[in-house]
Design brief:
Largest sheet of chain A: 5 strands, mixed
CATH superfamily of the largest domain in chain A: ATPase, nucleotide binding domain
Shape of chain A: globular
Structural class of chain A: alpha/beta
Number of domains of chain A: 2
Order of helices and strands of chain A: EEEHEEEHEHEEEHHHHHEHHEH
Number of helices of chain A: 11
Oligomer: homodimer
Chain lengths: 322, 322
Amino acid sequence: MTSPEQTKDYIGVDVSGAALRAALVSSGGQVVERREAALDGGDLVAQITRIVAELRDASRGGVAALGVGIPGLVNPETGRVIISSGLPSAVSGDLQAELKGATGLPVTLENDANAGAFGEYTIGAGRGSRNMFYVTIGAGIGGAIILDGKLWHGASGFAGEFGHITIDPEGIECTCGNTGCLETVASAPNIVRRTHERLYRDGTSSLSRLAMNKEFTAADVAREARNGDDFALLMIERTGRSIGTAVAAVINLLNPERIVLGGGVMEAGALILDPIIRVAGRRAFQPCFEATQIVAASLGTDAVSTGAAMLARDATSSSKAV
Amino acid sequence: MTSPEQTKDYIGVDVSGAALRAALVSSGGQVVERREAALDGGDLVAQITRIVAELRDASRGGVAALGVGIPGLVNPETGRVIISSGLPSAVSGDLQAELKGATGLPVTLENDANAGAFGEYTIGAGRGSRNMFYVTIGAGIGGAIILDGKLWHGASGFAGEFGHITIDPEGIECTCGNTGCLETVASAPNIVRRTHERLYRDGTSSLSRLAMNKEFTAADVAREARNGDDFALLMIERTGRSIGTAVAAVINLLNPERIVLGGGVMEAGALILDPIIRVAGRRAFQPCFEATQIVAASLGTDAVSTGAAMLARDATSSSKAV
């Protein structure tokens, strides 16, 4: 247990937002050090390499491998990025090979929602389960599936598309072309949109003042709800009910042991988790529902970076990283 | 390839309806012989044993194992029936052990929808895929998942509960307690109910005459639709659209290679399959949809019995049957 190999660290990088979030993680999953850097539109490989170098300096035992979570689709066979519309700069060529060349480390790439799921599964709120569904609700909505302890990618890498489940056949149009997707109701921008619409109709909320002075965010709505504003509370509660309908579909189809919900919108805590669980319990098939724990994620903004690091650790031990 | 072991046959029995349907199946999946018997409320083990004995007499190479598909839940570890509300007679004790004792054969029990899925997967419309979702729509609605060539049972054995996906949050109450489950619209009895309701409102259909004289069935609705009755056609088309909404949820969550739809309601053929595919294509996330083939099942009423036989074959070769 004390061989030098086992005390090596791993680096995980989250490229899913406007910033790079990177973490130096021990082989046991402890975050040793964090770094953040704003992403400019320039060379992504250079920016990742820079933050990796900083974290390597902070590691005592040395770094064994690098994992990167990206807002795109990664071919699990070749490790190449197939679709990367969410990336801040275009990924031409072979990101995995380029990062390996630049850092000298074995590199594992994974979709960000999948990496976040793996983080929660290995060291977060999914720990102890073998079959888990992960949801992240923020600016967009992502999902990922762990079956028998492994990420389930689906036939073309898109399994877990939770945000585009239809929860209201008569709902508004989604960017995906469908109407009434969960995302049209429950993503952070849509919480803001719905709140604006209702404020316009019956504006008796502390949010009315906010709305007059500046744009408010979904986090503002959650904060006012926590402060006891009835209107904000209603908006969060209704958001939770919509998420609960989609969670019920997951429970019915996958019968998972645990559903872990993370992302900025879930920072409303019990105010949103309670209606999710209540509606899932009403809408899901009971024997499935009773077998499923529905819990809040526990890693916060560390989920993707630590998950990517743990994926790199497991890929190195099974020689899947290049 | 010509050793005696490999020319043995397998028997599959479907206990999911009012009758036992049994098939003698070659190790390659060819149906050699079929038997049917009405199920009385008596001893299930004796009735199954009787039909198995008849099929054994018909086998040239001898029978290697027995598979039984039941309308209940089977614990995959112990092989014991956990929930059997759909069974014609109560299953007390250990059905698997009792059948083994009575027939002297290794016995595999499986939920009927799972057995049907495995039949379509191995020798039916799912052949050639590795990841498949199976739906059966008849008096009730069942579903089952095949991942990487194996049945996926879920945490408590209930994975694939397709019929209780909410497709209309404002819909009518379901027997399960939820409102707007797919089953409240698309099962055979609910097609009849909806058709009656609309006939009452605007009864300009060849079905009006039927309705005056006797109860009609979902099969009657499908037949009149095929005969060109606009009203019946509308009912089938709308049923397909509802199924398509639930199919879209499956595509988004599981990203399967293939979705195979069977059961009596699917006998309407393209009249129901076309709207299913059209609505799934509109509602599913496009990259997922494009990776999924949506096809009609091909085994008809043989699906459960042949699937149970193939499960028995595979369990015997991997020594999982007792």
